[in-house]
Amino acid sequence: MEVKVSWNGPSGMSFRAETGTGHMVAMDGAPEAGGHNLAPRPMEMVLVGTGGCTAYDVVLILKRGREDVRGCDVTLQAERAESDPKVFTKINFHFVVTGRNLKPAAVERAVTLSHDKYCSASIMLAKTAEITHTVEIVEV
């Protein structure tokens, strides 16, 4: 896996990233740091990737378990250290899983398997952050 990150130049603190699969992503800094607030911050992108990783796992595990899953949203709320390096210290994942006749135990199992076994991003972040999760099931 490879990505290339390039600074957009001296007019600010914006960057562009190209993934190994050819996708472009923009990042920008806060105005007080010279950015223009035109794109997500790099640490927000870490959370975005982690949320995508775990949501992917949860949906895949539920589908493989023949659960009638129709949607999966995950909201990550994170706290960071006060001083440098400002690593994540606490992250809560709130899952809202929608479907028909979803078994609560199956949904909880999918979330736990993601966090404990499959989602490399959340497992990596657990080295510095306390990871918690909540699950809400919505019948459709």
UniProtKB/TrEMBL annotation:
<protein>
    <submittedName>
        <fullName>Putative redox protein</fullName>
    </submittedName>
</protein>
<dbReference type="InterPro" id="IPR015946">
    <property type="entry name" value="KH_dom-like_a/b"/>
</dbReference>
<dbReference type="InterPro" id="IPR036102">
    <property type="entry name" value="OsmC/Ohrsf"/>
</dbReference>
<dbReference type="InterPro" id="IPR003718">
    <property type="entry name" value="OsmC/Ohr_fam"/>
</dbReference>
<dbReference type="Pfam" id="PF02566">
    <property type="entry name" value="OsmC"/>
</dbReference>
